[in-house]
Amino acid sequence: MTKTHLAAILPQKGGPFVVGERPTPEPGSNEVLIEIKAVALNPVDYNQRTLGVPPVPVYPAVIGQDAAGVVAKLGPGVASTSPELKPGTRVLALATSFYRDGLPDYGAFQQFALAQSELVIPLPDSLSFEQGAIMPLAVTTAWNAWTTINIPLNTRFTPQDNQAVLIWGGASSCGTFAIQTAKTLGFTRIYTTASPKHHAYLKSLGAHAVFDYHSPTVVSQIVNAVKHDGVILRTAHCVVNGGLQPTLDVLKETKGDAKAKVVYSPPLPPDHPTLENTEIRMNWPPLDPVERDRHFYECFHGWLKDGLRSGSVVPSPANIQVEGGGLEGLNSALEKWNAGVSGTKIVVPL
Fold first, then answer.
1. How far apart are CA 63 and CA 18, in angstroms?
2. What is the domain-level CATH number for residue 259?
3. What is the edge-to-edge ordering of all strands in the sheet holding 278-282?
4. Residue 45 lies in a domain
5. Which of 73, 86, 95, 268 could bridge to 282 as Cys pair (CB 3.0-4.6 Å)?
């Protein structure tokens, strides 16, 4: 195996990336060394490169989250806990330094990266590396949202529970998996918002009703649908910036006297709008490392791995925009992401 590899290195806050060589690390206990074949771009990647937010603890840095590739080497213990992972296995992974104090060996934007085994699962042969790369962070964020507001992963609402959920921003990468995970949880009705061109696709993922967030009457449309369907709507996941106030406007009319819960996936500003008897929490994984690793294992080795095998979970969004240039192309690819995409995930093959 190579002793060095190429990486998109972030020399200082504000970027840009500079491609250079790094020593190829050895996987430690419970770690997998992955030869990266494709990476997907996320808002956090642009923000970390350009703004240093969330804070990057170590410079020079290697950032990135979403990856797919091939297992290069297993660390001690992985063969017993994840026997399906072997050298040569095609995998998808959340390869992130976020839980490793920013250490650059763990960032996805390089030819070889380390990932903890809880966040690595086999990629079915029917899916490309590009399809595999679009899922890890979106799946994690979608499931984190529910546990943030104390809905465990093993929750299964019944039709008698009559529980509905509102997902504001369903066409985003995280939004598509928010819909798929809400379907698994058993919500009786899943309401979401998106541009009209995405409505049919989101219904195919499990949304029961999709509303155009551009409409000046979108709040009353959702409220009327909830009343017509006779369901209880006190739970919401706001996936995108700008959606919190209309989400609260809906809940004000649907929650009755009961407490409502809203999870917010973008950074939650301190001056955010509020609603009486409504808990608003920023999306966050479990803080305890042991609990967090167990949570990740359930998300990946349980729901995602089993769902991809059975076909109950599909890579989403359906539109993948492939940008060339490899590591050298990451700067321009992030600028294209920042210019705006809709219902599309940008992927860069390495």
1. 12
2. 3.40.50.720
3. 209-211, 189-193, 163-168, 232-238, 260-264, 278-282
4. yes
5. 268
